[in-house]
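Subject: for your reference before the review

Hello V.,

The reviewers asked for a structural picture of the protein, and I figured it would be easier to keep everything in one thread rather than splitting it across files. Below is the amino acid sequence we used in the manuscript, unchanged from the supplementary table.
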Amino acid sequence: MARAALGWGTRDLARNANVSPDTVARFERGENLKSTTVAALRAAFEAGGVEFIPENGGGPGVRLAKKTTR
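And here is what came back from the structure prediction:
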């Protein structure tokens, strides 16, 4: 869902997280990955503008962060 919100393909996420496209595919299939790999994927999403929303009764989710104006 986060990748789609950013308009990123598998290769875009892989490049931004410095992992292989195969790793992204494994992640999206729900396979177990090293915690450092999951952290790299999350950091790439957050750098791209995604906010992760904790579970609040409706389940966890994502949204695009508000852009700040200066």
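For the response letter, the relevant points are probably these. The first helix runs from residue 2 to 6. The two ends are 29 Å apart (CA to CA).

Happy to draft the paragraph if you're swamped.

O.
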